[in-house]
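Re: flavin-adenine dinucleotide structure - here you go.
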Amino acid sequence: MEHYELTIVGAGLSGISAARRLIKQGRENFILVDKGKSVGGRLATRRVAEGKADHGAQFFTVRTDELEDEVKGWLDQGWVKRWFGEKYPRYTAVDGMNRLAKQLAEKTPVSLHTKVSKIVQLNDVYYLYDDAGNEWKSDKVLLTMPVPQIVELLKNSNVEVQPAALKQLKNVYFNPTYVGIFQFKSSTRLPENGHVDEGLPIGVERLVDHQKKGISKSPIVSVYMEGDWSRRHYGEDYVMTLIKENTEKFFDWDDLESEQLKRWRYAEASKTIEQSYMDLTGEGTLVAAGDAFLRPTDKAGRTRFESAFLSGKDAAAYMNW
Ligand SMILES: Cc1cc2nc3c(=O)[nH]c(=O)nc-3n(C[C@H](O)[C@H](O)[C@H](O)COP(=O)(O)OP(=O)(O)OC[C@H]3O[C@@H](n4cnc5c(N)ncnc54)[C@H](O)[C@@H]3O)c2cc1C
């Protein structure tokens, strides 16, 4: 049976950031696992015919020197570019946000298609089980999934968690988000930078044209619905019709080639935790991190790319052995 010093569950940006920190510290005996077929989590990009669309995070902002230092390197590598905005410029990945996640995870030992379904603590070691029946041992475990998924996993596990920590985790709720992805035959009327987040109808959060954003050969648009709207209409089968009705005046629907709907069950935390990670045992062996864990100094107060990046990094520094 494999035995790692650390298992990181979740290969979104938090998990990747933790892994990058460990590699910098010279750590090798760890594994980053994800239930998906690719790393990145909510840094998600979809191919649509000849084109491409980001349908999770569209961009990120930078408020800390730590992320700024990293971003300098990513700009030099040609992985990201400045997209728009002055006070907090929006950066985006030149080839789609998921590609950036892959570039960041390049040197990391990763196991995909690995959904951790149970963790059992026995004699100071954690036994992890995935839903395909695989089992491995780990001295420490870092959980970086959206908080409700962490709570769910803990519920199905046999580990000692401090009751106060569990209570705090149970208090974190995530809003869902619906994203309509539309492929048009010809260019859209959206502004030159391809981004609209003002003057939109109630319920609509953002429109992005990926051809104008510069990541797609053809005009593919993502329409983001607000969290409240998405929660109200969650699971309804006419969501796509409503999205199109809501954004009627922005697009020429006769020019539509194809449409797809993406539903994020956990998109953004409606309440965050004011610490950048949480030690669940008090011994640093089982730790929770992720975008809902914000440094107390965080002024933006939102789950986002930067909070995920910092949370993973801080948790890895704390768990270093
Ligand atoms: C629609 C949308 C739009 C957004 N827009 C922006 C934006 O414009 N700017 C911005 O800064 N942020 C934005 N965000 C937020 C940003 O994407 C997230 O804050 C960040 O990517 C979260 O990273 P994470 O690693 O914490 O979580 P995730 O990316 O969710 O990663 C968690 C990973 O855990 C995996 N996982 C879950 N359960 C298990 C399990 N049991 N076993 C194994 N693996 C598991 C998942 O597959 C996933 O890959 C947006 C998010 C969404 C959904």
